[in-house]
Design a protein that fits this description.
Helices cover about 30% and strands about 0% of the residues. By secondary structure, it is mainly alpha-helical.
């Protein structure tokens, strides 16, 4: 398959992925291929001068060919490494340069970091982002904090769990056009090969390949860097896992109790250490896609025809409206919320769930014939909140903000 040999993805990436998935299943393997999005938007361009590569080492100045030092709290395990792409300092540093490099886009301006901004937990502030042609993406930019732990990576496709494969879609995908590099793979390789910084970084990162710059090595480095985006040092972590009773306010503690309680039932979806239900009761990876009642355009729980969730891929009516449950870590800095960016604030999110879902004019929460809609999520049943309780829940959510992560120089733009 030429796609794996470095060719650009076909025009219909999802169809190609489904074809490959079926082929792999016929061989008795597990297919995990699909489409994801890194929404490009603003600008990022490294200097075009002949800066020596030695000036772009790791922040510590350490050698770049050793195993990566995760430097995590004792309660947090590093994300799992793929066998074919173990994490090393050299790959991470190379991936960091690529992540912030505008040369990965056709306009030489947009980079992965243009819409995955560190200060916003590697998300952005727009409901939708736009690509090099001005075309808008269909869904809100997902935050990348702790993406290396995720059993799946996108809003509505449960099959993709490869960061390396995912990176190809924003660069080469056509629907929508994001970074616009379809047909420009050779130009990309030539541009990076002509930079002495990259010649050195690729050689260190991939010594067995003599530093050869290929699409495979580019995406392997991006995947390695993205796995290091680990957020685990919020004030809530200090309180819950670090044993510091005074790390969060009394209001936040009350908010935690409400969040975990049966009345609000938030933890039914937002469970586990990353508050997204990506592990089951035994601590094993688990996909978590839910219909949270965001739309009901037809009185039977229907969603807009151009954004119906998992059903677009699976073809199953019961998957209509099912989208991935996002992590709540750093949620206070990742507005707007939901897959379509339609809720601007945490208060609006609480209002949505308190109401039991969104009421579309002319639509009802049941099927209209006395039977409950098969698409109605029983977890979204509504509740009442006092003013103080609302403030307490928001205080708890804000305690999940990891200020260390949002300003960690190891994750920042190396070109500045």
């Amino acid at each position: 398959m030429k796609y794996w040999e470095g060719e650009s993805p076909p025009d219909n990436v999802e169809s190609y992925v489904i074809h490959v998935r079926k082929s792999l299943l016929s061989l008795g393997l597990v297919a995990v291929l699909a489409v994801s999005v890194l929404w490009p938007d603003s600008s990022a361009q490294p200097p075009a001068d002949g800066t020596e590569a030695e000036e772009h080492q790791s922040p510590s100045g350490a050698a770049l060919d050793d195993d990566y030092d995760w430097d995590l709290p004792s309660w947090m395990e590093p994300p799992p490494d793929p066998i074919a792409n173990p994490t090393t300092k050299a790959k991470v540093e190379l991936g960091r340069h690529l992540f912030y490099d505008g040369r990965l886009a056709a306009d030489s301006m947009r980079s992965c970091a243009s819409c995955h901004q560190q200060a916003r937990s590697f998300s952005d502030a727009a409901p939708f982002s736009w690509g090099v042609t001005g075309e808008l993406t269909a869904r809100n930019t997902m935050a990348l904090a702790n993406v290396g732990y995720a059993p799946s990576l996108t809003w509505a496709n449960p099959y993709l769990d490869s960061l390396e494969l995912q990176a190809r879609t924003p660069m080469f995908g056509r629907h929508p056009i994001e970074m616009g590099m379809d047909g420009r793979q050779n130009e990309l390789v030539a541009a990076l090969s002509g930079d002495p910084i990259y010649r050195d970084l690729f050689t260190r990162a991939f010594p067995d390949e003599a530093g050869q710059i290929t699409l495979k090595s580019i995406t392997a480095a991006l995947g390695a860097f993205e796995r290091t985006l680990v957020s685990a040092r919020s004030s809530y972590d200090e309180y819950r896992f670090g044993g510091r009773a005074d790390a969060i306010s009394e209001s936040a503690k009350r908010g935690e109790a409400l969040f975990m309680g049966e009345r609000l039932n938030c933890h039914a979806c937002h469970s586990g250490p990353r508050f997204n239900g990506d592990v089951d009761g035994a601590g094993r990876p688990a996909t978590n896609f839910q219909n949270n009642g965001l739309y009901n355009v037809d009185g039977r729980g229907g969603y807009p025809v151009d954004n119906i969730g998992m059903a677009a891929l699976t073809g199953r009516h019961e998957d209509t409206g099912r989208f991935k449950v996002p992590s709540l870590r750093n949620i206070a800095v990742t507005a707007p919320y939901m897959h379509d960016g339609s809720l601007p604030t945490l208060t609006a999110v609480l209002d949505h769930y308190a109401a039991g879902g969104r009421l579309i004019p002319g639509g009802e929460r049941n099927a209209g014939d006395g039977r409950a809609s098969p698409l109605k999520n029983p977890l979204v049943s509504g509740f009442a909140l006092s003013t103080q309780e609302r403030e307490d829940v928001i205080a708890f959510l804000k305690s999940l903000t990891d200020e260390v992560f949002l300003a960690d120089p190891r994750l920042s733009d190396p070109w500045r």
